[in-house]
Each structure stands twice: as C-alpha cells, then as structure tokens.
Write a structure and sequence with these properties.
Helix content is 72%, strand content 3%. By secondary structure, the protein is mostly helical. It is elongated, with a radius of gyration of 25 Å.
Length: 180
Amino acid sequence: MDALRAHFRPEFLNRVDDTVLFTPLQLAEIEKIVGLLLDDLLSDARTLDRVGLVLRVGTALLLAVVFALGDARNQPPAPGTGPVIVGLLSVDALGGLLIGVIVVGLFAAISMTAGGGAWDNAKKLIEDGAHGGKGSEAHAASVTGDTVGDPYKDTAGPAINPMIKVANIVAILIIPIVHF
C-alpha cells in the first residue's frame, strides 16, 4: 500500500476497513498501474535470470491484461484485439470466433434494423389515426419506441457490418503469425 501511495493521489486510494476501493480511473492512472506491474514483473524476471530460469508470459496473461485495461477504461478493447488474442491461443478457436462474429453479428444487425423500422412504422400508423391517433397513450408510447427505434435502424444495426469486417480482416492479416 505504501508503494501505491507514492505514485497516486489520495483521492484515488480510498481505504475502507483495509480494503482498497478503486474508482473509475483516468487513462494516465491506468498506465501508472500497468507500469508498476511491469516493473515488478521485470524485476522478477531479472532475479530468475540470475539463477538461470526464464520467465515467459503466456497468452492467458495477455488476454487478461487487454480485457482488464479495456474494462478499467469503461470501454471495450479495440475491435481488432479479439481475433489477435484468440488467434494466438488457437487457430481452431479463431475459426470459431469468426463463425460466431459473422452469425451473431448478422442476426443482431437484422434484428436491430427490422426492430427499429417496426417501431418507426408503428408511430406513423398511430399518427395516421390507429389506436387513438395523436395525443393518445398509444401515441406517447410510440414516441418512446420511435426514440429507441431510430438509432437502432439508422446507426446501431448498420454499424455491426464494419465490426464483422474488421474482425475478419484482422484474422486474415494474422494468418502468417498464427499458422504453425
């Protein structure tokens, strides 16, 4: 704990009953933590090297660090990191990931665009006089549905297609690395 106090502001470290509560961090703070961890790991590696042992970092640790950093920044890792990490684990796992990305992405995109369009059309139908027309409870509900439906059909659904493409392109680019 004393080592952390030397590097972080007091408001970052909140002690409650000998428990350290980590609040949402800024990227610079995350980089400091990773730097401390890497310094510790390197000192362990130097110690092991002196006695003739080699410290190797496995892909499981790489996977944990990438996803932990993404989670700590309250955002997912970059779309291309998934295929790289899974590809390093296994070529078969990479194939499974790509099949899953394509199938799930396709159905999610269709569901989002069709659902968003249905909500938009429901509002138009009610505004034309069905279910009480404008000013009714049905119209108020349809406005809420349309508020959700417009981004679904216009942005969220279509945005899945580029993510599928990024995953596939990254997988193609790493073939020379992961093909044993």
